[in-house]
Amino acid sequence: MKILYFGRLQDIFGRTERIPSRYPNQTVGELLDELRARSPATREALSRPFRVALNQTILVEETVELRDEDEVALIPPVTGG
Question: What is this structure's pTM?
Answer without folding.
Answer: 0.87
